[in-house]
Amino acid sequence: MLAEMRGLNEECGVFGVYGHRDAAQLAYYGLHSLQHRGQEGAGIVVSDQVGMKQTKGEGLVTEVFQEDTLEKLTGHAAIGHVRYSTAGGGGYVNVQPLFFQTQSESLALAHNGNLTNAMVLREQLERDGSIFQTTSDTEVLAHLIRKHNYLPFEDQIKQSLPYLEGAYAFVIMSEHQLIAVLDPLGMRPLSIGKIDGSWVVASETCAFDVIGAEYVREVKPGEMIIIDQDGLRSEFFAKQNERAICSMEYVYFARPDSNVDGFNIHSTRKMLGKQLAKEAFVDADVVTGVPDSSISAAIGFAETAQLPYELGLIKNRYVGRTFIKPSQELREKGVQMKLSPVRKIVEGKRVVMVDDSIVRGTTSRKIVQMLRDAGATEVHVRISSPPITNPCYYGIDTSSSGELIASSNSVEEIRQLIGADSLSYLSIDGMLEAIGRSSTMKNCGQCLACFTGNYPTEIHDNTIRPHDKENLVSAKS
Ligand code: AMP
Ligand code: SF4
């Protein structure tokens, strides 16, 4: 159960709109632009003040919703969710938004992140009589909310949030209110926008651009945004902390056209690449990036290194992200299907291959081999983030430490394992500087736990996979 409960909300994207007659359509387009955050399932719940309706399913946004399904979702408010695929499965029942109907009031919620104390809370709630429908940690909040159902809706939520630990961006809806909340450390991105006088919230600002909404501001750590017929109000359910937003949003997850906490993702990635070139210059003939997430960093690297940037690898757009494939064999095939070298560009050349990160090492090893097979004389790998040495408990599926190549191998050992002529990672200080944060690691505004092992929240014993326990202890000591 623990394994099942963990990881059901990996990454994910959330969207909410209130007070717009095309609420479901806006949610559809918003979710479509957040598709990179999750391809396993999608769902929309709409409210028409009297009741709520839901459509959800496994697959891509375009597969789950057709014109006629959307037409039936009439209402003035909607929340939506795209879910990331995980090895553990989860199926239709765990596709979000989760939706509960009662005689008095309905409740829908969608979550991006991971509650690190979900197991503890679930055990307590089950002991008190709650019956869970899903294996998702998100459902814990639904039961906590319902335990306070003698209060007005927004107070039910306000009373429940202090029980939660971990990373969360929630959009929650009743017939009459849309509520957005961000965890006390602001570990996940969540922004507020406006369209035609109506309020929208989304995991990434690219969702505003696609529907023509204007960006207003970020939801702050520990903030609860309440939207209803009286407009938008803000309250804080936790003391205002310095933010600890996930560094991997900048490195890998977010879309290049999004701005996260005020920083544009493409420009930030370019700066990561520039910093990497300063730290780990290598003389070569061409620089190439691994599409799509590393292109910005590769351009930055080439600019600072004063080497030509070339499209040495191309991506087949019709194959999903490799990382999500459940077995190693499928993952390796996935890389091959997804990427091809451009022989004319790399043949006879010394190539710098920039990627945003190495997790298990599958992608880098395959690409180095591909480039060599296509005639590259040297392959130098440059990674625009520091080595990932520790697992993430906040909803990013960087796997357990046993699978993380950098948790038990030195940079030189990794170089040998992936078969590169040279390998360098970006330093932590260099990454912070490139993002635009203070280069001191304490209070830098970022979560760095997968690089340092210093987790910004308490990690409960039963959140930790047995394999990771030793690592956590050694990282702390
Ligand atoms: P690996 O092949 O396991 O080393 O994974 C590294 C590749 O996966 C890189 O090319 C990254 O762009 C990508 N990546 C890094 N972190 C994640 C993640 N949490 N989910 C999906 N893909 C990732
Ligand atoms: Fe992001 Fe890493 Fe922190 Fe997880 S541990 S939230 S992946 S920075």
Task: Provide an overview of this structure.
- Keywords: 4Fe-4S, Glutamine amidotransferase, Glycosyltransferase, Iron, Iron-sulfur, Magnesium, Metal-binding, Purine biosynthesis, Transferase.
- This is Amidophosphoribosyltransferase.
- The structure is a single chain.
- The chain is an alpha+beta fold.
- The chain has two domains: 3-241, Glutamine Phosphoribosylpyrophosphate, subunit 1, domain 1 (4-Layer Sandwich), CATH 3.60.20.10; 248-476, Rossmann fold (3-Layer(aba) Sandwich).
- Helix content is 32%, strand content 24%.
- The chain has 19 helices and 23 strands.
- Iron/sulfur cluster binds next to helix 9 and helix 18.
Which key features would you list for this structure?
7-stranded antiparallel β-sheet, 19 helices, 6-stranded antiparallel β-sheet, glutamine amidotransferase, 24% strand, Glutamine Phosphoribosylpyrophosphate, subunit 1, domain 1, alpha+beta, iron, binds iron/sulfur cluster, 477 residues, 23 strands, 4 iron, 4 sulfur cluster binding, disordered C terminus
